[in-house]
């Protein structure tokens, strides 16, 4: 099954993005803890894009699609037209660094990497595409 | 959306979280903990029994106060977390850096 959602680049819309993902995953009989982890990873990527690539400008949008292959995997595609940013090119801080510097950011991408089985960012002159893939065993 | 309420029970400050802590609402959690530290509370309990979601923004708030807790002799314990919320702390191993208990009674005994 393929599902689509479009959201303005506002942090307040993260909740509706999460609801879109969890309501569709629930149709596919996944455990609550697993649904929450998948929702979390996509929420983290969307929050990063909204804040860092779009400066929380609600006139701009994120397009999200999710493809659920039963008993196999779920694939998310997040498309935006902001400044291309590939977090995979940035070194993530260690937990010790985060505690010492008292920085509140930096944990999101670590979570995404731990949760997802495949992460890909690509950009061309028109758009940026982030692909997140999670293997599921229903 | 998160509702945060403070309650004093004996010499404990109980901060109750009701709702979701994400990139949009984590600022309220930050403010609540900042006030607890500034008001010199040394025994802080965080009631997460009505916390339905936490993202890295919320985890980052707790992480950013670990040094203050250590240097100022403050102890903060979370309790009542649902399985899915506790799992988020566990993914990063934060359950080793922050104390998490099942119940308020259990948490109080650790002070």
From TrEMBL, chain A:
Keyword list (alphabetical) reads:
ATP-binding, Kinase, Nucleotide-binding, Serine/threonine-protein kinase, Transferase
Output the Gene3D superfamilies linked to this UniProt entry.
Answer: Histidine kinase-like ATPase, C-terminal domain
Listed CDD domains: HATPase_RsbW-like
Ranges for the Histidine kinase/HSP90-like ATPase domain?
11-134
Report whether Metal-binding shows up as a keyword of the record. Answer: no
SUPFAM superfamilies per the UniProt record, alphabetical:
ATPase domain of HSP90 chaperone/DNA topoisomerase II/histidine kinase
**Coiled-coil ranges per UniProt:** none
A GO term for molecular function:
ATP binding
Give the E.C. number(s): 2.7.13.3
State the protein's name.
Answer: ATP-binding protein
Biological source species: Splendidivirga corallicola
TrEMBL record, chain B:
Concerning SUPFAM superfamilies, the annotation shows: SpoIIaa-like (SSF52091)
Task: Cite the Pfam families for this sequence.
Answer: STAS
Residue ranges constituting the STAS domain according to the UniProt record: 2-111
Would you say which domain of life the source belongs to? Bacteria
Q: What is this protein called?
A: Anti-sigma factor antagonist
| Species of origin | Splendidivirga corallicola
Stated family: Belongs to the anti-sigma-factor antagonist family.
Listed InterPro entries: Anti-sigma_ant, STAS_dom, STAS_dom_sf
